[in-house]
Design brief:
Chain A is α/β, with parallel strands linked by helices and about 575 residues long. Chain A is about 35% helix and about 20% strand. Chain A is globular and about 75 Å long. Chain B has a single domain (about 1-180), classed as Pyruvate-ferredoxin oxidoreductase, PFOR, domain III (Pyruvate-ferredoxin Oxidoreductase, domain 3), CATH 3.40.920.10. Chain B is built from seven helices and six strands. β8 of chain A pairs antiparallel with β2 (about 30-35) of chain B.
């Protein structure tokens, strides 16, 4: 038996890929998928090329390139990243792959850290590729290993759908031996790889012919298994829901665990045939449920309201659906204020967003990153957030609709991910917008991963550094300013000046993420003779609060010493600790 | 044997380190472990909770069913209240008395009143961590204070702390010991 160590689902996926002998691993950071590539970067030799790609589309295309050379490639992203990678993905099913290619899509039901809760299984069905769905970390490793074998044998990319609760749940996992990497072989076959209509028509037929084999695989896959109990009720469960189903299992129902897709039609029919009632437990959309509905008259699930259509499943929801008693909640009768995530004390975005708001843009289109938290009170500094890179396109659309004083806010990693193209489009089509690029040298929200603008690669090595302002200049914008976001007065003046001008104007607000640990020279700030005006509280800094008992603002030990509040205080009452 | 441990607090308080120590210690004893963490956006000063399940038999759900928690370790008083739904009359609660303020924070006396009606031990982890020489060891103080109710011997926990924490090993061990003392 191999050694056992505690691994999260994500780490287990990474370990499984390394044991399979991958040569390349790529992806873009996004919760809940980020730790997969971080583990590979930390625990693989330099024989494995591991990287953060600039976005998910590029990541998948990079993995395709490796796979065409006959080596194995892993590509990781969060569920919404698959939208970005969908263009190569769907046609990749036509061209097929050579070395195994596994695409990990990490779904986030309940939206712990996401803008939607889309279900990646539809993508696998849409692209007509196999999908495996692990229920825990141990199975995740086994499935990644099998996914590479399956990818190689079918010549198709295989999707592994994980969930927040699978990715971020740890358990002891047995380590296996590492297989050797494959030697790259370039065996060019243009009729397979060049998807002009004449060749693509043939490849579409071949993809359809493969479907029979995929179904046969699912029908006999050990990842779909029956736990035989009482026959009245049949529970069909996938992913983490299998764990919930087994938590309450006392031989009083039978369980069909689904782990391999396309859905095994025969197996499903056989399982439900002698059941009086069927309950389907799955995260996301009623994907299995809708198919089971075609074969059984009494199916409970998301369509019947027994399981909620939105949000993440919990043991309580499953227990209730299984006929358990509701848990009586003991809330002690005290109203609990929510504690949502906030921008950190000392965050450089706080000054930028505050200064922007003071200058009254008519609308601020926002983007995806820590700064999205600026929508909350008291800043309420941005008005839209849709998807990665959307801020600039939306701003241009508003400008073209006749709205003036339009500003957009986008982080530098998001700008590199998918903001550059919209900036070019805005310039080309003569929009009149102000674009604030918040450059904190990192992908902060997902845990400080490096970006192409930080000059460091995923393993911490030095690499080429891409200049945000040079990109903007080469796109032909009307002006580019670079400013320190902690200087809020200068920032405000600059924003005022640029908001009033025509054309596409870019301001790069540049200061490293406070989590990178640069610091501000040590000294914290304290409140001296407070006039109780409350202006400093407009920043929404977690280190600042108002103590009604003493009628003054107070600064807690969370203070990093960034000094933004001190600049804001009209009475100069906020001073450095050592100046008292 | 099974022990379901819920660790609640605020992002950045070192919850994941404590859950790592628990699961590594349990692995050393060949116990089954499942540890479900909060990552990502919620870590930015938001409310976070980690479920740690230890058992000598198979563990199915990564999440502890409500009402099933054996030990609740709360790094912050308000966050202890937020997870009362997981607590039963038998649950042992260790709670740090030091609040992390937010707007409309309930009156501290009423929070502690509710907790004291239950099987709760209130610990001033901030001052004990200070005594240990590092205020960042509040998490280990609380681990020490809950250790009598965990299925893991103190010596094993101490060994695991040594192996798991990267920095300030002596301060962490001292913090653990001060936590143990506070529970007596």
């Amino acid at each position: 038996m191999g050694k056992k160590i505690v691994l999260s689902g994500n780490e287990s996926i990474a370990r499984g890929a390394l044991e399979s002998g991958i040569s390349l691993a790529t992806g873009y950071p996004g919760t809940p998928s980020t730790e997969i590539l971080e583990y590979i970067a930390a625990y693989s030799s330099s024989d494995v090329h591991v990287e953060w790609a600039v976005n998910e589309k590029v990541a998948l295309e990079t993995a395709v390139g490796a796979s065409y050379c006959g080596v194995m490639a892993l590509c990781c992203m969060k569920h919404v990243g698959v939208n970005v990678a969908a263009d190569p993905l769907v046609t990749l099913a036509y061209t097929g792959v050579r070395g195994g290619l596994v695409l990990v899509a990490a779904d986030d039901p309940g939206m712990h850290s996401s803008q939607n809760e889309q279900d990646s299984r539809f993508y696998a069905g849409f692209a007509k590729i196999p999908l495996l769905e692990p229920s825990d970390a141990v199975e995740a490793k086994a499935m990644v290993r099998e996914a590479f074998v399956l990818s190689k044998s079918t010549g198709l990319p295989v999707m592994l759908r994980t969930l927040t609760r699978v990715s971020h749940t740890s358990e002891p996992v047995e380590l296996g031996p590492m297989e050797k990497q494959k030697t790259p072989v370039l065996d060019v076959e243009r009729r397979e790889w060049v998807m002009v209509p004449a060749y693509a028509r043939v490849r579409h037929r071949i993809l359809n012919q493969k479907q029979v084999k995929l179904l046969e695989y699912s029908e006999s896959s050990g990842f779909n298994k029956v736990v035989v109990g009482a026959n009245e009720l049949g529970v069909i469960a996938s992913g983490v829901c299998f764990g919930y189903a087994m938590e309450f299992y006392r031989n009083d129902y039978s369980v069909l665990k689904i782990g391999s897709y396309p859905l095994p039609d025969k197996l499903l029919r056989e399982f439900v045939r002698d059941k009086k009632e069927v309950l389907v437990l799955e995260e996301g959309e009623p994907y299995i449920e809708d198919m089971v509905r075609c074969t059984h008259h009494n199916v409970k699930g998301k369509r019947t309201g027994d399981i909620p259509l939105e949000g993440e499943l919990t043991p309580e929801i499953v227990s209730l659906a299984l006929g358990g008693d509701p848990v009586i909640k003991d809330d002690a009768g005290i109203k609990l204020p929510p504690r949502p995530p906030v921008m950190c004390p000392g965050c450089p975005h706080r000054g930028t967003l505050y200064a922007l708001k003071q200058k009254n843009p008519l609308i601020v289109t926002g983007d995806i990153g820590c700064y999205t938290l600026g929508v909350q009170k008291p800043l309420e500094a941005l008005d839209t957030c849709l998807c990665m890179g959307a801020s600039i396109g939306k701003a241009a659309g508003m400008s073209h609709s006749g709205i003036e004083r339009v500003a957009s806010v986008i982080g530098e990693s998001t700008f590199l991910h998918s903001g550059i193209t919209s900036l070019m489009s805005a310039v080309y089509n003569q929009a009149s917008i102000l674009v604030l690029i918040l450059d904190n040298s990192t992908v902060a929200m997902t845990g400080q991963q490096p970006t192409p603008a930080s000059g460091v690669d995923i393993r911490g090595g030095k690499t080429r550094k891409i200049s945000i302002e040079e990109i903007c200049r080469s796109c032909g914008v009307d002006s580019v300013d670079v400013i320190n976001p902690y200087k809020i007065v200068e920032m405000g003046e600059l924003i005022e000046k640029r908001l009033g001008q025509d054309g596409v104007r870019v301001i790069v607000a540049r200061a490293p993420c406070v989590m990178l640990g640069g610091g501000f020279g040590g000294d914290r700030f304290v409140v001296g003779n407070c006039s109780a005006c409350g202006k400093c509280l407009d920043l929404g800094c977690p280190a600042l609060s108002f103590d009604e008992k003493i009628n003054k603002a107070v600064i807690s030990n969370l203070c990093t010493g960034c000094g933004v509040c001190a600049q804001l205080c009209p009475f100069d009452a906020i001073i450095k600790e050592d100046e008292i | 044997m099974k022990s379901d441990i819920l660790i609640a607090g605020v992002g950045g308080q070192g919850i994941i380190l404590v859950s790592d120590i628990l699961s590594n210690a349990a692995l050393g004893l060949n116990l089954n472990v499942k540890k479900a963490e909060t990552h990502g956006m919620a870590q930015r000063g938001g409310s976070v909770v980690t479920h740690v399940r230890l058992s000598d038999s198979e563990i199915c759900s990564p999440l502890i069913p409500e009402g099933g928690v054996d030990v609740l370790i709360a790094f912050e008083p308000l966050e202890a209240l937020r997870y009362l739904g997981y607590v039963s009359e038998e649950t042992f609660i260790v709670v740090n008395s030091n609040p992390i303020w937010i707007k409309n924070y309930p009156e501290m006396g009423s929070i502690l009143g509710v907790l004291k009606e239950r099987n709760a031990l209130v610990v001033d982890a901030l001052s004990l961590a200070g005594q240990a020489g590092n205020v960042l060891t509040q998490n280990i103080v609380l681990l020490g204070a809950s250790s009598a109710h965990l299925p893991l011997k103190k010596e094993i926990l101490k060994e695991t702390i040594k192996d798991t924490v990267k920095r300030a090993v002596d301060e962490n061990l001292k913090a653990f010991q001060l936590g143990v003392k506070a529970s007596r």
